[in-house]
Every structure is written in structure tokens, then in C-alpha cells.
Amino acid sequence: MVGGQRRRALKQYQRNFYAHNAAASKAVSNDTNDAPQHTREARQRKHSSFEAGSSGRLNVSSTYYTVPRSPGKRHRGESEHALEIIELDFATLNDLSDNLQNDTPEFVEFTKQKRTEFLRLEGRGDYSQNICVCGEEDAIYRCQDCHGSELFCHLCTIRVHERQPLHTLECWDGVSFYSTTLKSMGIRLQLGHASGVRCINSLPAFNDDFVIIDYNGIYEVGLDFCGCASAQPHVIQLLRARLFPATTIDPKTAATFRALEYFQMLSFESKVSAFEFYKTAARLTDNTGIHVPKDRYEAMLRMMREWRFIKQMQRAGQGHHPEGIVATEPGACAVLCPACPHTGKNLPNGWENAPSEIQPRFLYALFLAIDANFRLARRNVSSDIVDPGLNHGYAFFVEEQAYKGFIGSHERVVQELSSCSSHNAVNLADTRVSRGLAATGAGTIDCARHNFKRPCSVGDLQKGESMRSSSDVSALNISYDIACQWSKHLWTRMSTFPHRYHIKHDQKAITFLVPKFHLPAHVAKCQSSFSFNFTKGVGRTDGEAPECGWADINPIATSTHEMGPGSRRDTLDDHFNDWNWKKICAMGLIFCRKYNFALTEVQERINDLIDFEASLATDELAKWRKDIEAWEADHLQPNPFESRATATMTQAAVRLALSMAEAAEIERGSNMSLHDDISPSVLISSGLELEDQQRRLDFDAKMIGQHATDVQKGKILQRMNALRRRIDTWARVQLLYMPSVSRLRSPDDIATETKVSSISLFLPSSLPQQVLCDDRLLKYEWDLREAQAYDTLNDLRTVLNLQYHLYKYKDAFIRGQRANTRANGIINNTEHRIDMLSLKYSTSRDALLNLAARLGKNDGWERSLKPLNKKTDAVPLKHDDGRTVGQQSISWIWKTLGSNSNELGLQDSLRVEWCKSRARAHRWQEEVQLLREEMRRVIAFLDWQAGWWEKQGPRRAFSSQHVREGALAYAQRQAHLRRKMAVHFKSVWAANPSWQEAPPLTVHLHSQ
Hints:
By secondary structure, the protein is an alpha+beta fold. Helix content is 44%, strand content 10%. The protein contains 26 helices and 21 strands. A hairpin with a 4-residue loop joins strand 18 (441-447) and strand 19 (452-461). Residues 27-44, 46-50, 64-102, 425-432, 463-475, 898-902 and 999-1008 have low confidence and may be disordered.
């Protein structure tokens, strides 16, 4: 019932709306066709007016006037011709708002109540009495920040707000409220004494215009310092009142602790800039521009920077160090990853000597990921002298002076060019555009498994992603998107480093890998040699941890881009620390989800491998297992993941073989060619080419669509005529070798066929069974069709891989309508190419089915050349309904390799696929073991850290008893927090207690 009323009201509204638009357009148009007939000869203008009629309808009246030919001013009364008034009915619009809302009357009533209450709050409401609750004065003051809207008198307001000097007040003047301040009412903030106690020797702030920045406004307050003989310095008095001073001498500005903490947390989550936060507070104070607060933006920046540094030092325990900040070691303020191995913190005693059968060594490997971010560039503004950093390598950025000195000493070293896939990060390292930039970006080293920034792992890039800027590594598994190039001559380059940065690489098993997302852009050899999926002992690590971190930090680049060097480093250090802390807080749920998923996946992958091995020959399987184990032990051995079937079957190779065979027949005198220029094999090969040209022409004709230009139509017609003539010439020769075709095609069929693509060529594979054909022709077409099918699959794989990377490139780099339109055009062309290749393959396979029946072939060829379903089979190698490489089942087109021997090619394809299936099972098995060890390490690290904080409490001897108490309380609070986190993580993981089982999981595989 209600729905019907809404529809009828909406239809009525539409009719009236269209009528109104038509009338308005007619009324305001300069067209004079509906002007009075006798005025059309002169230049006319029209004046229209709209007004509501007494009946609730809209009246539109129009008046025409003549524009005089002279440039003099026209008088309104000249040549006016009034038209009749048009009346439009808009009465139904009054009720339309309710009809368009939710059907429930409660919602409509609630909306009306909100509008009413908003207006009611503009007045005094329930407190319209003139006398305050104290009964002494009129109640005219109301606080916007206190709970409720009660009104008080002057004295009661002062009494209530003695401890709330930053509230905003309103005063009732008999008609409306106007804003006022507590300072104007005489309230003063006394420091150095208990609340409500006035100092007998109070000292007003300098110039008595002290400004306090809070999270909800900027306030000018009356502030008095304590002037007693035992009074603390002004800065200390402010800090004890939780006010952070902007200067140390005669401070005139301070920010509340809650304001600084609020902005810090807000910047972590929303990446809001200090300018935006300050302007927000200023507008909350006055949004009219009449009483603009005094500008304290520079002071705000200074206070925030000092706040970040002090809180960082406090959270790192440096305030408890006996020697203070000066004793801070490099990286000591960075939040560490509790799941990574830390000697003496979360590793068991004697782990380095444990037998590998009991505790596999890969469980204690350190996974590092290196990457650079060019969005974190910094303009060439300010300098380290003008804007020095407070952190000197204490957190994530390396110590700047030593770093720049080292980079400067290597400026003349020529960057080695990439021999892989023309990596711009390498080849353009010395040519990257850096005009106006002091740093072109930042390079980092992350924890590759848990996405943590590593201590002292961030440095500014002076040129491109230079491979010498990230060489401070000490790891077992190192991931880098150009690792194939970066790992070359690494130890030679490292020999030029300061000795403390050297790695004893001859005593470590260091593995270089390429992140999974970046790997497809590399050449085929790198894709197998640097793959996480094929490398033993890495689990399901993907190496893309830095990219996840960049997604979080990139929004802050708009602010840091214009900062000085010190401010930028301190700001990014703070954000990186917060990123690490958030990862720790989420570890309970993250590990729970990963572990449960890994347990499911490992069993599925093991079952797949067992089923696969059951269909393989035992002797071949043993040989393959020996090869892959040898490669895992020594990567200098032949890579089992690379195909060894090098003799590929192509149409060109088959044509050459047939031509050589015909040459041998001519030498022997047994050649049966019936034409001087065209042999039987050339006839079949030419027929396949004509068939392909028909297919191409048909696709191109469809692509130009129904609205083709004359030029496009002309080109298509020229191609059709040329192809028709070639088919006609070929068909005459065909009759020499296949005279039976004359019964299937009349002499005029080729000339009269409307569509050239529909002309039947009557190749041997398309002849009916009852039509005789020379076996040699059948054999020739079989060889050429088989090669054509393999060629087409190879082309299809190439185009699918191209399309995959086009999509990835478009998503990552293409912005704007013009660029997206062009990119979509290129992608559409690849889609048409895939359609054509799919049809070509299906045609070749259908021909092979017909030829196999006539030649008596077995079905062995069908193992490699399977039916092609474009939707499910013609998909990129990385495409499998959103599943990762470790989970996916690869389409058969990526397992088929053409070779001179189908059996050899099939065995090689099976070997490679078995190696990948085994790798998937082993990687998931390793992932389960790694997750168990990491979960154990997290608990152990938190327990160690809790004990460390307990030792920090009494570590430093403070002269003040109150400071000692505070230091001990802070250390105990931190220790208690770590223990609570450990208990919480255990409770989250308790749903699957197998994570605590020891020794680590061992799955018995056939391939072990």
C-alpha cells in the first residue's frame, strides 16, 4: 500500500518536474519564435520571472522587449509585450520528501525530531529560568564541553571550571548565545601548586597571552607560574601539568599531552599532516575568521617533533639507562620483530649445534627483503645544518653523516647494467631524474616473513635503486626484486665497506631470491633459479613484505616530500615504529589464521603429490627424485624445474623436414610431384596458410564493426579480393593431387561465394570418409597440423603471459582517462588475438582427430594436445580463481611442450610438473614447521622482553624519589603488558594446540 503511494507520488513529481523544465527553458530562451508576430522583425530579448501563486503553484511570467539599435541605454518600458502567465502544479512536492524516505513512519518521525532538537539547543531549553541554582545571580553561561546544557551564573561557572581551563563557553545576552572565554571571566591556571591553591608570589606568563593547543581548539589562557623560593623552572611546571612547552626560555606556547598523542595516533592511521591538524583545531576555535587564534603552527611542529623523539626514547627504555640518551646504540629504539630469530632472546640454547634431523636448520633462518620506494623522495629544501635530525641512527634510518660519506665515496662507480629483463631499477640507477630532489626515494630492508622494518635498515637513495645502497645485510635468505643482478659481485663490493659491515659469507648459507610478484618479469632461467616456490627451506614466504609496508607509508609522502632532512627522518622513523607495533598487536590473529590455513593446505598438497606419484613409473620417479635432491643440495647442478626438451616441433621445422625428404626422393627418382613448382607437401602447407588467412580476415572484418570508415572497408575488400585469387590459383593445383575434390566443389563456387572466409578448401582432413585421398597427403597434413597445434599453443602461452603483465602494469602505473583508454585498447587487441589462436588450435585438433581415424593413429597424441576450453584453459600461468602458485592447479596448456618425440616431450613435461608438485607439498610442510617455530619464538621473545623491563626499573639511580617511583612503575607496566600479550596470544592459539607440539611436524612423503 505504502509502496504504491510512493510510486504514484514519484510519477506525479516527474510529470511536474518535466513540465517545469520545459516551461523554464521556454521562458528563459533567447529564441523569439513564440514572441508576438509583429515584433519578430526587431531584435528581441526576453525577461522571465518565477513566483509562487496563492494556490501553491509555480507561476512563470515572460515579457519581451525590443533592443534599440543605438548603443544608448534601453528603458524597460520600451516595446514590452506581456505573455500570459503559465501556472504549474507543484502541490504534490510538499509531501514528496516523506514519500522518498524509508517506509517506516518511525524513521520519518525521528528525522523531524532531530531537526527540532537542533533548533531547540540554540536556545536555553529547559534552563530558561533567570536565577542560577545557587540562587544568587542570573544563569547566563553554558559550557560546550561539559556534559549537558545546564546554565550557570558567573561565580558558579568559575567554580566549576577551575580545573577545566580549556573549555569553551557561551553567554546568553537575552536573545541568543555568543562565545566567550574563561580568561575573560577571570579564570587563571595556576602552576606549581595543587588545584585550587593560589600562589602568593605568582608570576604571569610572558605578556600574559599564553596559548595552549588542545586536540579540539587553540586557547589563550591566563597562566601563572609559581614564584616561590622552591619553585621548579617554568618548563618543569608546565610538564607536570601535562603541558608540553614550545620553548625552554620564557615559554608562551604549550600543547596538551592529549593533543600531541591524539595527533600522533591520527597521523599513524590517517596520515594527516601537522598543518591539517593545526588548521582543524584553529577552525574549531573560530570558524568565522573574526577572532583567529594567534599563529602557533611553527611551535606545533617543534613540539610534535620533540614529543615523537622523547616517547621513542622512553618506549625503548633509554630513560632507564644509567648514561641516558648519549649511550643509545644504533637501532636500539626500533621495535623488533618477536617472531624473527634473536640470539639470546628467543632461540633455544644450543640451537646452532642441534642435529638437522631433530631441528632443521631452516627453522632458524633470517628472512630479509630489500626494496626501494621512489615515492618517498624529498625535495632539495633545507639542510642537515638547518634541520638536523634528533635520531642519529637510533631507530630505522642509518646514521646520516657516515652513510652520505660512504655514498659520496662511490659516486664515480659505474653501475653494472642488468643482463636479465632490463630492470629500470638497475639500468636507470645513474640516470634517474633527480632534478630538484635531495633524495630520489628510500631503500629499506624488511623482515620478509612478518613484514617488519629492520633496525638501521632505511637509507635515502641518491640516484636510482642503486645496488650499493642496500648492501648492509646479514641473512640466510635475501629477497630482492633484482636479486639476480644484485647478488653478482656482492662480496667484491662488500670488501669496500667498513669492516664492521662485512658478512662472513664463507661461513653462512646465503640464498638469493626474487619476490613472487616480481618474478614473472624476469627471464625464464631466473624464474626457476630465484623462485621461492622451488627453493628448499623457505616455506610459503613470498618476499613481498616491503610492498605491503609501502602501501601504509606512501600517503605520508605528501607531507615528508617538503620536509627538511632531519624532520623527515624523525617522522618516518616514528611511523615505521608504529607499523611494527601494530604488527605485534595483530600477531595473535595473524598466526592463528596462517597456521590453520597451512594445516589444511599441507594435507591437500600431500594428497595431490601422492596421487600424482601413483601414476608414474617407479624407475623414472627415483631418477627424478635423485636429480631434484642433488639440485637442492647444490644449485650448480642441472635445474630440474627447467625443461630439457630442446628440440621443439614447429611448422617451419616440419616444412624443412618435408622439403629434405622430397629432395631425397628426387635424387632417388621416386618423386611423384605432378606440378613443376608445387609439390604435395607445399600444396598442403599452402592450404594451411590460406586457411589461416581466411581466419585472420574474418576476425579483422568483425573488429572494424558496423560503422567502419571507407578506408577500413576498402582495405578489407582489397584483402578479400587478393585472397580469393590466391585460393582460386591453389584450387586448380589441388585438382592435380586430389581429383576427387571436383565432385565436391563446382568451378564457380570460389567466385560466387559471398564471404571469402567461408570458401571450403577441402584439405585431406575435411574430406568425407567415403572420398578417397592419397595417404601421402594425409601424412603430410598430419605432420603439419601437429606442428601447427604446438606452434599455436606456444603463441597462445606467449599472448596470455603478455596479457597478464599488461593488466598488472595497467593497475600499477596507468592513471587518467586517456592513458586507460589506450591501455584498454591494447588489452582488447590481445583478447582478440587469444580468441583467434584458440579457434586456430581447435581447428587443428579437429583436423588431427579426422586424420587419426584415417591413418590409424593411436590416442597418445591426445595426452599433449587436449581439447581447449577458452574460459578455463586459456588462462595465464598465475591465474587460478585467485589462488596462489602454491595452491593452484596449472592449466594443461602450460604443461604441454612440443618435441620431435611426443613421448620424450610428455615425459619431460611430467618431470617438471612432478618437481613443482613436490615443491608445493614441501613448501607447505616447511610453512607449518616455520609457523610453529615462529609462534614459539613470539612467546619466548615476549617473556624475555618482560624480564628485560623488570631489570630496567631499578637500573638507573635517580636523585628524586618521585622519579625513581615513576621509572619503576613504567618498567613494571611494560613488563606486565608483555606478559598479558603472551597470555592473550596463547589463548587465541589454544583452539589448535598442535602448535606447541615438539619436535616440529614431519610429514612422510613418497618423495622423501
